[in-house]
Amino acid sequence: MTSRRPLLRAIFDAAVAAAHPDIVLPAFLPAAPKGRIICLAAGKGAAAMAVAAERHYLDTLGFDPAKLTGIATTRHGHGVPTRRVKVIEAGHPTPDEAGLKAAEETLQLAATAEADDLMLVLISGGGSANWVAPANGVSFAQKQQLTRALLRSGAPIGEMNTVRKHLSRIKGGRLARAGHKAEIVTLAISDVPHDDPSAIASGPTVPDPTTLADARAIVAKYKLEVDPAIARALEDAANESCKPGDPAFARASFELIARPASSLEAAVASVKAAGYDVLDLGADLEGEAREVAADHAKLAREARALGRRMAIISGGELTVTVRGQGRGGPNQEYALALADLLKDMEGVAALAGDTDGADGGGGSASDPAGALVDAEVIAAMRAQQLDPQAYLANNDATAFFAATGGLLQTGPTLTNVNDVRVILVD
């Protein structure tokens, strides 16, 4: 049978291209102001978004370069050359000292904004980890420890961000409070299910509907062991996030420029062009990776039983409750579970990848984006007598796919609209 890897990669690439800042940002950029443009960007697409903004204002509109300034904070390895906006590469998913320094500089620059200025805030997935400004009384080390605990707990991104927003001086609308004198325009690439503005990069410029009580409940729900300073901060009313009606939002607007659903639509179009019927499960799936894989494997078997040439497509952001000592991410774990469940079913190929180019991992630009499952992977698994269940038990999907040749390596894509999963049943 012809390899389906080129087709799977083309489907994934179509989804990524539909959300690239060069494509989606220019049409949403506001008119040039009388005063300065202060560009503050965070997330995996931050530097690429800043470049697209510079090109629009400096080249297309002829805006005075001396009046354009800013800071773009992005994940290590996701920086690109800029002209006026300073780029800082910082830690993700675990924050580091660079993100701490970048958040302080960002807040200080926002505080210089005046009434004639435009504070252009460009955010994408990863911004929560990139902008780190611990609440008063909470140390950076304590915030790092909490982030690691949340990452291992299996909590979905919305719950993680609820906790982080209440331990921050920049999240939960507080950046808008810092730059409230200016017009604030936030343009966002969504990486969260249901595109909730307050969840994207933890909503630095929008009202936050969640509360300190919500954050405490999440800590209790996952039985997280937190430092006493964290517990005190979550009881302190001074750490409540900015709510609707706050004066900080008097001149603030927010708009989505790319969303997971649009990228999934591009993937669906690519699949249909290849002659497959499509089962589109939507862009907002959440849940434990291996459990979702079991549901999707069942759908693949049903399609085979009906004799249909079917593509099963889904987006969203899955989670992994980490119990082992291995390496991987939700997409690799999903693919590993699929490999185990579909190992006896011929004519099936699958891809699961994160559109930012990194699935879990240690924060390196060389981390895999996800994994592929096909006849080559299954053959290598059998030849080496590898047991997928043993790798699942140790959360070691990266090692399994490194051994079987199934790692999806894309490098940084400079955008982030969540995950894309495709199962082709021939």
TrEMBL record:
Recorded superkingdom = Bacteria
Q: Which Gene3D superfamilies match?
A: Glycerate kinase, MOFRL-like N-terminal domain, MOFRL domain
- One Pfam family per UniProt: DUF4147
Tell me the InterPro entries matching this sequence: GK-like_C_sf, GK_N_sf, MOFRL, MOFRL_assoc_dom, MOFRL_protein
| GO CC terms in record | cytoplasm
Q: Where is the MOFRL domain?
A: 311-419
GO MF annotation, one: ATP binding
Domain MOFRL-associated residue range list: 8-235
The answer on whether this UniProt entry bears the keyword Kinase reads yes
- The entry's keywords: ATP-binding, Kinase, Nucleotide-binding, Pyruvate, Transferase
Q: What is this protein called?
A: Putative hydroxypyruvate reductase
Q: Where does this protein come from, organism-wise?
A: Bradyrhizobium oligotrophicum S58
